[in-house]
Amino acid sequence: MSDTFVVVGGDAAGMSAASKAKRDDPDLEVVVFEKGEWVSYGACGLPYYVKGEIQSLEELVSVTPEEFREERDIDLRTGHEVVSIDPDERTVTAESDAGTVTESYDSLLLATGAEAVVPPIDGTNREGVYTLGSMSDGKELREYVARARDGEGLQQPDRGPACRYLEDCSGPVAVVGGGYIGIEMAEALAANGFEVNLFQRGDRLLKGFSEATSEAVADHLREQDIVLHLGSGVRELAGEEAVDAVVTDGGRVNVEMVLLGTGVRPRTDLAADAGVELGETGAIATDPYRETSVDDIYAAGDCAEAIHAVTGEPAYVPLALTANRHGRAVGQTVAGQPTTGGAIAGTAAIKAFEVEAARTGILDHEEALEAGFDPISETIDAKSRAGYYPGGGTVTITLTADRDTGRLLGASLVSEYGEGAVHRSHALVAALTEGAAVDDLENYDLAYAPPFNTTWDPVLVAAKVLSGNLR
Amino acid sequence: MSDTFVVVGGDAAGMSAASKAKRDDPDLEVVVFEKGEWVSYGACGLPYYVKGEIQSLEELVSVTPEEFREERDIDLRTGHEVVSIDPDERTVTAESDAGTVTESYDSLLLATGAEAVVPPIDGTNREGVYTLGSMSDGKELREYVARARDGEGLQQPDRGPACRYLEDCSGPVAVVGGGYIGIEMAEALAANGFEVNLFQRGDRLLKGFSEATSEAVADHLREQDIVLHLGSGVRELAGEEAVDAVVTDGGRVNVEMVLLGTGVRPRTDLAADAGVELGETGAIATDPYRETSVDDIYAAGDCAEAIHAVTGEPAYVPLALTANRHGRAVGQTVAGQPTTGGAIAGTAAIKAFEVEAARTGILDHEEALEAGFDPISETIDAKSRAGYYPGGGTVTITLTADRDTGRLLGASLVSEYGEGAVHRSHALVAALTEGAAVDDLENYDLAYAPPFNTTWDPVLVAAKVLSGNLR
Question: CB distance from A45 to chain B under 8 Å?
């Protein structure tokens, strides 16, 4: 009898694992339990769906449930919530409208993902308060925007793409949180004519990026008429049934809607109940092969820790590529070829209106000190194309290195959209993953032609300046 | 008395060396002999000047002679051609309109650059035959284009930016050579209304790139109404005083002008006469610090060899960044801090109309075999942005690796302009410089967001596919 590989959760990590395992070992029985109806969807696309640049939720789905079942021969059971795991008996129990089912496994993958954090303040359950974690969240938000544009919330339904072009703005809304979701949703809402107030507890946006990047993005958001409330911890979402104001230490801002973009946390209840150990980050701890403390139970994606390429320590950075990579690696492993799927570098990218930014590695000096490094940082501005070539803009790059060894620890980049901050970050990911020093980086023979960069690409300029400071 | 550093040649390598040496050691006497009037100019910008996107040659100059003299305190002598070097006496002799001057040196840099190769065929000295190596070449070509647009050569001076929009094309011209200069000049001439015939001896353009890249660029050039004559060795440039036809094995094409873009060769006469050894490539041989076979004589830039990052062997790849990097390194070295300036990877980038391409490392299997590798290549097409995100296109990537070790040897990328082939190449330069294997590369935690790439960036897709083939 063939082995059975059971996957709990049908998004990036789960479906990558299921697909890879079945492809590499067609004799394997692969069962996926997904509590919702959607599988394998690009949650990263939800802000663009709400914005209106993507017309249907179906477009976010890379492979449909039917394709998984019929073409990939995966026993995908949507609408099935796994409620318990028995590691001794090697079974999982799932509930659905049809009742309760118990399935045996030889290998099990926990791919339960993460959920939006709702901050512990009053009023988060009022009408008009949204989060954006799931496809149904996206649907609700799009419906809200459509209603508002049809005149129920906004005064001028036909008033064009962005509030700043209007004489009279109305429909003030709040975004709480200045991370990816918060900023992408600020763009999505502003593009639909809302006056957007963005509240950030800390004193800058995108706190994992460099200060220079945060400032460039903040300046740009202000230019786009986003009202930034930095250093503004939200006390309460006030109102009757529906929210009508955000109350901070500094005062009260009337709004018609609130989007909470205050981060995510790993879904670990099922794992914890089964006796699977969690790490210090609160996510599921694993070995390099994504195996948990319990034999033959793996964890990957937004519910699990991973090893950081710079520190060598476990870290929790829930992002799509890691989920895909590590899910796929588990699939290979259970199909008989043990695979780690590699480390993470905490790399992330964002487009905010007409700027783009990326970050990777360790930028924060406290974090670097804790990891045993002696950090030094440098920020440069450089032209994105040859000075004489038409167009172009500025790329601002912050690099952090270890003073003793010169090793590159982290990088943060920002430029106008299309001027290459994000694609330039790939070289820095490569360099820090390979343990390169900034004086190695300074000598990389990077591609040059006037329509793309200056003879010394901004990446090389940054390395040259920081390397000079280390001598 | 302070030491004297004499530099022969005032472009990228020479002026980088002079500036760095003087900055690091202000007591050093720095003398630069430049036979022409222009120094420190971006020759890479000349096609865009001829095209008309750059309005004056002065825009291509990054630092003026006056700035070098007055702000950087460099004894820059333009209009001075060095005619001999006496290594025993440690002197150089230069000629100018004012006469002959002999200067003593403690260190000497040969930064004599490269010159356009004129192929050994009949007719290259006819009127209407141009090369594009120097600022004066650029000036002559721009004047030719202006004359033609004013009606002397072209029938319809006001007929718009490109021949393909016209009912009746005239002014057929020829570009001989399908490398960077040839293709960039084909764009520059087409944009000015010329019907461009591009002749390439070999059977594909951009022979240092992958076949997939060459084909993508060729297809795009044809779409832009460039008439490609591949596998067409030119026999003769026919005509009376002025050229009026290109004669190939296959026939005769009437043209009004010919641009020779048939490569460059290092200017080494001065070095050879002084007893400086040349390498197998024909360029000046140096040690890792750019010192030649003669003590205290250095060579850098387009006249010199450099060590290839993949093979570890001397190579000749005359490009701007290397000249800058190695010139600067010599400046540091003569100022007392020995610096290699790093290896080269043969990296290059080109924009051709609305496509962009880059290449790095060793792609050619024969070349890889000679260097002791067992090459394997794979080419993939992938989406440049998330499938559901508006816009975007295709990135085609060829990777070559060593079968035994998995080590990345080379890469070639092509995409629509703006879709990131060139900036993505930087990661591959980093990887191959660090000696990474494709299964390392496959696991890089590259930045992802829907406006920039798919969850697995095309670079990762290429690595994944090639890595799969190696197992």
Answer: yes
